[in-house]
Amino acid sequence: MASITDCVVEGLKYPFNDIKKLLGLGVLFAIINLLSMFFAMNTFDMYRVVIHVLENTTVPLSSLNMSIIPSANIYTAVGITIVGLIVGLFILGYQYNILSFSIDRKDDLPGFGDVVDIFVKGIKYFIVSVAYNLPAMIVMAAAMMFLDNLTVMSVLMVVSFVLLVIGYFLLVMALNNMVAHDSVGKAFDFREIIDNISNLGWGKYIGTILFTVIVFMIINVAVGLVLSLLAVAFAAVIINQAFAVSIFIGVIEALFVSSYCAVFFNRVCGSIYRESIK
User: Fold this and answer.
1) Which partner for 187 in 24, 159, 170, 174 could form a disulfide, CB atoms 3.0-4.6 Å apart?
2) How large is the angle between the packed helices 202-237 and 4-13, nearest 10 degrees?
3) What does the pLDDT look like over 250-273, one tens digit per residue?
4) How much is the pTM?
5) DSSP string of 51-119?
6) In sequence order, which residues have a C-beta less than 8 Å from that of residue 158 and are 6 or more positions away?
7) ∠ at Cα 85 (174, 46), nearest 5°?
8) Residues ≥6 apart with Cβ < 8 Å to 190
């Protein structure tokens, strides 16, 4: 049985098996980053409109009509959201295939040929992820209803965090179980999920995930620091081009960091499942 270190090290090497496909995934992350930037700009424009109206009227904020916001901004926000959701589901579908390749011990990266299949798998991945995080989100929403009662709100926040952690650890095995059987129902077969974790050992299962998350965070922090320094350097050279610099850094981060980390993380998760069914 492979050790925790073996699983993580193999996962770190795996993305380099096909740089072209890795960059293909990176392009999708780059689109997400660009959409996020344009959405932020569009939101800021709407915010400026509201502020301008408030400064020139005595009408309270709660009484303002949505019609004060230019329809172009609203349509843009809706359009960006829809495109972002589609691209996001495609990314999740690709991660579904990475899990599948890992479980089947395939050394190459998945392709992008069957767009519809990848998109459908992305929907499955999304549904299961939301379902496992739903209890924590419900409790969190309930906590927000007790802003005037700090004690109750604090207790609910702690409960929400605990549910989030438990849900996350179960989610990793649930996604693998779904992928292995190509069935959404298997993501909610709790007896099989618990048995798989028990087969591997709870200590090793949790330890592998925690170690992977730590490595994941180290990579992001280290690269984030480098990109921040690059941003400062570019900003010093390219005057009054902050947005252009942000786009450049965002694209680089997506192409080489987000894609790598996504492939690495899902590869290790697939390896965890493979070890649990031996």
Assistant:
1) 174
2) 30
3) 888 899 999 999 999 999 999 999
4) 0.89
5) HHHHHT----GGG--GGGS-HHHHHHHHHHHHHHHHHHHHHHHHHHHHHHHHHTT--SPP-S--HHHHH
6) none
7) 135
8) 170
